[in-house]
Design goal:
Blueprint (H helix, E strand, L loop, with lengths): L2 H16 L7 H12 L9 H13 L6 H13 L3 H7 L2 H8 L4 H12 L12 H10 L5 H14 L3 H8 L3 H10 L2 H17 L8 H4 L3 H10 L1 H20 L6 H16 L6 H18 L5 H11 L8 H7 L2 H7 L1 H7 L7 H7 L3 H7 L5 H5 L3 H11 L3 H10 L1 H8 L9 H15 L3 H4 L3 H13 L18
Main location: cytoplasm
Organism: Huiozyma naganishii (strain ATCC MYA-139 / BCRC 22969 / CBS 8797 / KCTC 17520 / NBRC 10181 / NCYC 3082 / Yp74L-3)
Keywords: Chaperone, Cytoplasm, DNA damage, DNA repair
Length: 473
């Protein structure tokens, strides 16, 4: 008899005979069961019996660790067939659990729903309507909201689930949007972001649900800056999804919102909270727009609202995050002026080396003397970015031997700052992703240094950077 089988047998027997008087150390038994179940790929024994035991505990008022019980349930569900799960947890059980108002019960029902196979098996059961009402209820426990979020993440790829949410419950979603209350709105935005990523056809897209009008943006900005920033973050999520999918058909509905948000940023003197609290959110938003396939949209925003030029208070920021291809096409003179090798301009320089054309512009400035004049941590910040691109690595390998030597030995100066240690390790790991013919003579020294980083310091220190023992990976 395996250890997992034996432990689960003990667990089931205790629940069957001792509910109401559980023995001391029962939490420990649950934890042992959880650990054992997590190590197997097929359930050892009768899953239904264990699932019923867990259900019995969930319905009891025992003084046990319910978080641990839910972890055990999750482990069991992951290695149990869905039809076997439904033998222990019926539709009526799941509905009753979701309506119980008891957080562990609701979470357990969500975990069962998450195992649906196929993923849309329960789409027409009415359970998703209950989940939506729970999700938008401000009194729902955060732990439950997180579990429902996980349910969306796992199941929204199914057409039937999306249809249940978007078609059958669109009225509820629009009501939440129209009510414009901060907490439900934040949850709606998160849900819409998940849905948008999984849309398969333009016919699923509901413009008046996914898009916000300017008056709504202004209302949010005037009454609740957090809500406004959540909307900006939401739009960034949509733009990110467009870049990763074929959802460019949605762009024509989003463009006016891009201009509305950009216009409000341009009018920031009227809305000081935009800069005080939202600069990073807005810059992320602008960055995503600059990376759209058609640079014309960002060009219009730049000319009308952003004004990337000498004297702009955010010029250094723009040069640090805007698509370098756009900067190469329209602001080459600014690259030449501001992309210099110095600690103060590192964010700009890191952005420029991420594109081959802008890299070629700044390459004459990337001399060994200029790079080594910076402090070692700053060198690593630059090299961490350069090591991600083959054209930069080729330049380092063939043209900057002093920089490569500094990366590997640093004149044997101890490195104790954790961030610098981590950055240096990333640089070496990134470079080792390239073929030996790319790294040329530096391939073996880099491999040796990587081994030393992972297995200890070479006592002879023939070619090693002396890293404090506490930070060896």
């Amino acid at each position: 008899m395996s250890q997992a089988t034996d432990l689960l047998r003990q667990f089931n027997e205790v629940v069957a005979h001792r509910v109401g008087n559980l023995p001391e150390g029962f939490d420990g038994l649950m934890d042992k069961c959880r650990l054992q179940v997590s190590t197997v790929t097929n359930f050892p024994g009768d899953a239904r019996e264990t699932l019923l035991s867990i259900k019995t505990l969930l319905l009891s008022d025992e003084d046990i660790d319910y978080d641990l019980l839910l972890e055990l349930l999750s482990a069991v569900l992951q290695i149990t067939r869905f039809d076997a799960i439904l033998e222990a947890y019926s539709m009526a059980d799941l509905e009753q659990a979701l309506k119980s108002g008891i957080s562990p019960l609701i979470q357990s029902a969500c975990q069962v729903i998450q195992t649906s196979d196929p993923k849309g098996a329960l789409a027409s059961s009415g359970l998703f309507e209950i989940l939506l009402h729970l999700y938008f209820d401000v009194n729902t426990d955060i732990a439950v909201v997180k579990e429902i979020d996980t349910t969306w993440e796992l199941l929204m790829c199914d057409d039937r689930v999306r249809n249940t949410i978007l078609a059958q419950n669109v009225k509820l979603l629009l009501e939440v949007k129209e009510q414009f209350k901060p907490i439900p709105m934040a949850r709606l935005l998160h849900l819409l972001g998940i849905i948008f990523r999984e849309l398969k056809t333009p016919t699923e897209y509901v413009p008046n649900l996914f898009v916000f009008e300017k008056n709504e943006l202004v209302e949010a900005l005037k009454t609740d800056i957090i809500m406004f920033l959540n909307i900006v973050k939401y739009y960034s999520t949509l733009l990110e999804s467009i870049a990763e999918t074929n959802h460019e058909w949605a762009l024509h509905n989003l463009i006016h919102s891009m201009f509305d948000i950009s216009e409000l940023f341009a009018e920031r003197e009227q809305f000081p909270d935009i800069v005080a609290y939202g600069k990073s959110f807005l810059f992320t938003f602008f960055r995503h727009i600059s990376y759209l396939n058609d640079l014309a949209t960002f060009r219009k925003l730049d000319e009308k609202f952003l004004h990337i030029s000498e004297g702009n208070e955010f010029l250094s920021d723009y040069l640090s995050f805007v698509n370098p291809q756009y900067l190469f096409d329209f602001h080459k003179d600014l690259i030449d002026t501001y992309a210099t090798v110095s600690a103060f301009k590192l964010p700009i320089l890191r952005n420029m080396v991420s594109n081959n054309q802008t890299f070629q512009l700044v390459k004459p400035k990337l001399t060994a003397d200029a790079i080594l004049a910076m402090a070692y941590p700053e060198q690593m910040v630059l090299l961490q970015k350069m090591s991600q691109y083959i054209y930069c690595v080729q330049y380092l390998v063939h043209n900057l031997p002093k920089v490569m030597s500094s990366l590997i030995d640093n004149n044997y100066t101890p490195i104790t700052e954790p961030e610098t240690v981590d950055l240096r390790t990333q640089v070496i790991e990134n470079m080792l992703h390239y073929e030996k013919n790319v790294l040329d003579a530096w391939s073996i020294p880099l491999q040796n240094e990587y081994i030393k980083l992972n297995h200890g310091i070479n006592p002879e220190r023939t070619a090693a950077t002396d890293i404090a023992t506490a930070y060896i990976g």
